[in-house]
Design brief:
The protein contains three helices and ten strands, in the order αββββαββββββα. With 152 residues, it is α+β, with helices and mostly antiparallel strands.
Length: 152
């Protein structure tokens, strides 16, 4: 009986660090993007058997990116569609919930460029305000009052 308890204790102690480890990640997808155009990143995580992993899109949104969509793929990976909101070399960090605890995947680096503009593109001139049409109701009222005064 003591040997059985000791064996159970050893198994529990050995299993605890394995469950506490964070998953190993592979990230693929876009490395370059354009400001305001969706980019797709694919995350694959290796988690211990029986562990529950779910994306946390709300916690992943930051000032440089907006999360548009997160969808599971048939091969077990997850496709994240993100919208770049800034230009330059930016890092996107996907946040996940693993067995009730928040974990972060390694950052995915994206080189975000501004939108391509034609060579001769320029800002259009601002046009002045249009003149308002004169109101006719004061003239119609004056005519009615004059007609009423003449009738009396």
């Amino acid at each position: 009986m003591k040997a059985l308890r000791r064996t159970a204790l050893v198994l529990v102690c050995a299993a605890a660090p394995a469950a506490a480890q964070s998953p190993a990640w592979t990230v693929s997808g876009a490395t370059a993007a354009t400001l305001g155009v969706d980019a797709r990143l694919v995350y694959r995580a290796s988690v211990p058997p029986g562990a529950k992993l779910a994306p946390d899109a709300l916690a992943s949104a930051a000032t440089n990116f907006a999360v548009v969509k997160v969808a599971p793929l048939p091969d077990g990976s997850w496709a994240w569609t993100v919208l770049p909101l800034n230009v330059g070399r930016l890092s996107f960090v996907a946040r996940w919930i693993l067995d009730g605890k928040s974990v972060a995947a390694p950052p995915a680096a994206l080189e975000v460029a501004g939108p391509a503009l034609p060579k001769d593109a320029d800002i259009d001139d601002i046009k002045g305000p249009l003149a308002a049409r004169r109101a006719l109701w004061p003239w119609a009222l004056a005519a009615l009052l004059a007609l009423g005064a003449w009738a009396l």
